[in-house]
Amino acid sequence: MGLLSSLFGKSKSDANEQEKQDKKNFDILKYDGIRARNMGKLPYAIKCFEEAVAHQEEKETLGLLASAYLQANRTEDARITLDRLIAQDETNVQALLSLASVCYIQEDYEGMEKASQKAIALDEKNAQAYYLAARAARGLKNDLQAIVMLTKAIVQNESFTEAYLLRAEVLWEMRQAKDALNDLEQVLKLNPEEEEALLLKATIHIGMGENQEGEACVEQVIALNPFNVKAYLLKGGLLIEEKQLDKALENYQEAIELIPQEAQLYQERGRVHLLMGDKAGAAEDMKKAIELAPEKENLISGNFNNFEKSNLQTGIY
């Protein structure tokens, strides 16, 4: 009996020692991963977190690993890790919101809807959950549901600028211009320098034929940020519509001097050259646009060819 007791006692002691060693290894890996992440050594951080969760699937470390995967643009790995985390704790609202965000990146709007609605069921006052549900609804082409979810998000957080902006976008797509402008005014009241709100406001005014008001918004964006490509494109399109081709050309030349690596600026300047009858200048800009964005060669060439045919048919030059 003494021998058996001795053997069993030793076995229990060994098990305790192994458990302590595993816990020590886990802690070392976890905190080495955190330090590596904070130092910007993301691949090493991921390796540490992976080894740590192999020892112990602790919730915090799974969350750290998922976050690191996202930083490394490994969205599928992040999703798998978040699924593991949620399987452990189905009431983890933050994990569900993170999963919804990953689904958005993957354009899996059904998965996004499911995750965000689970988060809402757990926390009915979570504005971010309603916002993500709205993005999912929009991805599923359900604009009315998106409006409902965004309104609920704003009720929970009256300073939620992203929700006002997204609701304005949806409202404008539904051609509810007045309501969209009201939301944009709220955004600009909260942040007068919100460039996306100013650009959408410009787009709405131009769409309503209020070109002067639209141009004023575009000029405000350019004054705030001379490197905003969308502003130059919107301004150029307006000037072309108004047949102010010299000013349109000047607009794109100014933009290209500041942002010489943006293919779309060359493409649009080429369009102006074509309207002015300068086929050589148009071809040169098309060539440059393709050099900068070879993956869009078919689109760029197609746009130029269709545009040239349209001009010939209408007798523009």
UniProtKB/TrEMBL annotation:
Q: Can you say where the TPR repeats lie in this chain?
A: 161-194, 229-262, 263-296
The record's section on Gene3D superfamilies has: Tetratricopeptide repeat domain
What name goes with this protein? Answer: Tetratricopeptide repeat protein
Identify the domain of life: Bacteria
Q: Which UniProt keywords apply?
A: Repeat, TPR repeat
Q: Which SUPFAM superfamilies match?
A: TPR-like
Q: Where are the transmembrane segments?
A: none
Write down the species: Phocaeicola plebeius
Entry-linked PROSITE patterns? TPR, TPR_REGION
